[in-house]
Structure formats: C-alpha cells, structure tokens
Amino acid sequence: MRRVILPGLAVAVLLGCAPAPQTTTVYERYEQLKNGPALQAAAAEPARRMRELDWMVGDWRTTITVFATAASPESRETTTTSFHLVGDSILASDDLSTILTYDPFEHDWISAGFEPPMAPLNNFRARWEGRRLVAEAPARIFGETFVLRQSLIRTGQNSFEILNEQRVKGDRFVPVDRYSFTRIVKPPQPPGQ
C-alpha cells in the first residue's frame, strides 16, 4: 500500500495543493484505515477502472498535426507510439512521457505528462463527457502558464485521437494540435515460429 500513498502525497506537494497540517502521519492514518471496507474498495477500484481503457494497450501509428498559427504553417509528422499497462496505470511509450491512471478517492482520471526541459511536469484531472475523456487545467510550458484542454476520443475499434486546445483571449479554446492513433495490426505468426 505504501507504493500508492507516497507517490500520491508527493504529487500533491508538487502541485502545491498539500493539505493543512494533520494530527497523524500518513502511516498512522493508513494503520487506522487499512482494514476498513472503504479503503479496501478504493484500493481495488483503479485496476477495475483501467479495464475501461485497456483497448489502448499496444502499438499505434501516430499522426501528429500541429495546426497553423499566424506565425507558422500547419505541420504533420508520423511516428509510432506504444501504450503499456503497468500496474494500475497506462504508460505511453518507453520514455514515460505520459501516464494515465485513476484516482479512486476523487473519482477521476489523472493524466501526467513529463516532457523536460520544456514542460517538466504537468498533471490534469479528467472526467468522461459522453465519449470523451476531457481534462482542463493550467500547464507550465517554457516556464509560462497556459490553460489547456485535452480530449481523448475513441473514434473506432482501432483508432482514437487526442485533441489539445488552448484557452485564448475571450475565454475560448482553440485547437493547437491533434494526435491521431491507428492500431498497428501485426499479422499472425505461423505455428512453430
């Protein structure tokens, strides 16, 4: 259980949302709660909720479109992305640039992005809005704060996209880039190979 408590506490401190001083340590509180049905149910929930997104696991052809701005034309590149289910999280690629997991205490999804040096750590809390998993939060990029909205949308059995938008003047969101994923289907291997 320590692997759940300490990382969660560290993320809270990093995000600047540390709770008021407590009268017990986190381990004393764990000892008080560990045999209770509420904590047991919460500890089991992330594994169950990850099944909602296990379709993402595998290799994907990824087309990244950066939309045109006043200063630059639209650009597009294609790469490969691998998603892995590790414990109660989905990791994007081997560089750990994105981690997606479920918080059973707040009942929402957490997307954490690590892209140093430009965007060393950004965390978003997300909720389902229809068929979209939507996260909106301030993000630190280039040492500046931008308000971003990210939508994960399953577009088919073997396709999905992530649309990133930014809040601009007039309190409206404009699309900045889109990641379109198409599953790489590997042909079956003949028996004995």
TrEMBL record:
Stretch forming the signal peptide? 1-20
Q: Does the keyword Signal apply?
A: yes
Give the keywords, sorted: Signal
Name of the protein: DUF1579 domain-containing protein
The uppermost taxa in this organism's lineage are: Bacteria, Pseudomonadati, Pseudomonadota, Alphaproteobacteria, Caulobacterales
